[in-house]
Write a structure and sequence with these properties.
Layout lengths: L1 E2 L2 E2 L2 E5 L3 H12 L3 E6 L10 E4 L2 E4 L5 E2 L3 H9 L4 H4 E4 L2 E3 L30 E3 L7 H9 L5 H16 L10 H7 L4 H16 L8 H9 L6 H4 L1 E4 L3 H4 L1 H10 L3 E4 L3 E7 L2 E6 L3 E5 L1 E4 L3 H8 L5 H8 L3 E10 L10 E3 L12 E4 L10 E7 L9 H16 L9 E12 L17 E3 L12 H15 L4
Parallel strand pairs: 3-4, 3-16, 4-12, 16-22
Antiparallel strand pairs: 1-2, 5-6, 7-11, 8-11, 9-10, 13-14, 14-15, 17-20, 17-21, 18-19, 19-20
Helix pairs in contact: 1-11, 1-15, 2-15, 12-13
């Protein structure tokens, strides 16, 4: 087969998560003969949908940014229309106020009276304005409610200094150290920086990488208004990309092999041998290894790649818990999602709540509460955790009905992401062996473990391996 004057190669992609799907799409689009192996029966990896309680629910709630250029370009390539796939909202951090927002009325209260010194449990209301950058955030800061003058000056000082530094550190440190260095107030840290760090890096500020955090802030607080927009998926994560990627792969002559766990890799005679449970031994011109670090290390163990395996084995992991709570279909929160004040010591584990009914009409009355860096919450009995989260929502919104959902479903991924610690060693896409590359959100890159990081890595690995066919 010829295309563009070059010979198409027979290539294997091992792993059907977002990185593997992106690599497969990129290679198939370049004219190569691609076989995509996935051990599970469905694609998506750690960002996929599950059938639960008669609904199709994601194994975790995600927010994307308008700055996720690689992901948005990949979605467009496989035929996903952005307007249909996402609810677009301006960058924001908004909390409910008990006794004011009842969860079924006109939206969030604009905030605290200007002269009122807010208590620790009072929230904030920060929303980017419909203006070009940087005025969209300047006006948002001016209008922000729930922050004292010292908090606003603290945020302005941080943003100005980070821009001057080009969002780059000469020596990485923890996010907590960075915030202390720039004299961030305790209230601003609690209401904005800490939840942003947990949501973006899934690692507590005390041990999270300040450099990676700055990269995320560069593409949110420091970006254009459109790039800083928050994109909430209206469709389940499997439908959002993996299913569309599978259709694209088939249309370009590729082969999808689900339920096919790869058990061994071997190099020899200018080709790679791939052994799988369903298809036995096959030979390929090259391989994209797009599985999590522990699985990658296991497959690479028989190859002369000891230093690479040491990096893969050194990763630590953080959990994410999503708790779905079903209420009467008439229940509607003031916004599609709100921030929550968490305090594990008092049983308040939830950090964000999403009103799924405002994203998908078939899920009316369904709320999703997210807990990032959920190590402690993951040790609790699921029913007990669900009760705590329901009570937290009832108190936060001042709505007693939220304490008694009709049903609950707790989903915890104990290895949802790598712990994004300072100066973390992350492997390159190139393995060091010809014809073998790595793909995954854990490879070298500016971002933490995000969908954008996975897609970027998948595309980079594909281009490194295949190039134009």
């Amino acid at each position: 087969m010829k295309r563009g004057g070059s010979v198409a190669r027979r290539l294997a992609v091992i792993g059907g998560g977002w990185a593997g799907c992106a690599a497969a799409v990129e290679l198939a689009s370049a004219g190569h003969q691609v076989s995509l192996f996935e051990a599970a029966r469905s694609l998506g990896g750690r960002a996929r949908a599950l059938p639960l309680h008669g609904l199709t629910l994601d194994n975790g709630q995600h927010i994307l940014l308008g700055a996720y250029s690689s992901t948005l370009a990949m979605l467009k390539r496989v035929g996903v229309r952005r307007a249909d796939a996402f609810l677009t909202m301006p960058l924001q951090m908004r909390y409910p106020r008990a006794g004011v927002n009842r969860g079924v009325v006109n939206g969030l209260d604009p905030g605290l009276d200007p002269g009122l010194d807010p208590g620790l449990d009072a929230g904030m209301d920060f929303v980017a304005a419909p203006l070009p950058a940087p005025f969209h955030l300047a006006l948002a800061l001016l209008r922000a409610k729930g922050l004292a003058r010292a908090d606003k000056l603290s945020l302005a000082r941080f943003s100005t200094s980070a821009r001057w530094m080009d969002w780059t550190l000469h020596h990485d440190c923890s996010v907590a150290e960075l915030l202390e260095r720039f004299d961030q107030t305790a209230r601003l840290t609690a209401l904005m920086w800490r939840p942003l760090c947990l949501a973006a890096l899934n690692t507590a500020p005390e041990r999270a990488s300040a450099q990676v955090f700055l990269a995320v802030l560069r593409d949110s607080l420091g970006a254009s208004r459109a790039a800083s927009n928050m994109l909430l998926p209206r469709v389940d994560l499997t439908a959002l990309f993996p299913q569309a990627a599978a259709r694209h792969l088939a249309a370009h002559g590729g082969v999808l092999r689900t339920g096919a766990a790869v058990t061994a890799l071997a190099q020899g005679a200018g080709a790679w041998q791939v052994d799988s449970t369903a298809f036995g031994s096959e030979r390929f011109d090259g391989v994209v290894l797009a599985v999590p670090p522990p699985a990658a290390s296991k497959l690479l163990g028989a190859l002369p790649l000891a230093p690479l395996c040491a990096i893969l084995d050194a990763f630590e992991y953080e959990a994410i818990t999503t708790c779905y709570l079903q209420y009467d279909a008439a229940l509607r929160l003031p916004l599609p999602f709100c921030a929550l004040r968490d305090d594990a010591a008092t049983g308040r584990h939830g950090q964000f709540v999403f009103d799924r009914g405002q994203l998908d009409g078939a899920q009316a009355g369904l709320l999703a509460v997210v807990i990032s860096a959920a190590g402690l919450a993951a040790t609790l009995d699921q029913a007990a955790l669900a009760r705590l989260l329901a009570a937290q929502l009832a108190a936060a919104f001042g709505l007693a009905a939220l304490a008694t959902p009709r049903w609950h479903q707790v989903i915890t991924d104990k290895r949802a992401t790598f712990a994004c610690t300072p100066a973390l060693a992350r492997p390159a896409n190139a393995s060091g062996l010809a014809g073998l590359v790595l793909a995954g959100d854990y490879t070298v890159g500016a971002y933490p473990a995000t969908l954008e990081g996975a897609v970027r890595s998948g595309v980079a690995a594909a281009r490194l391996l295949g190039g134009p066919a």
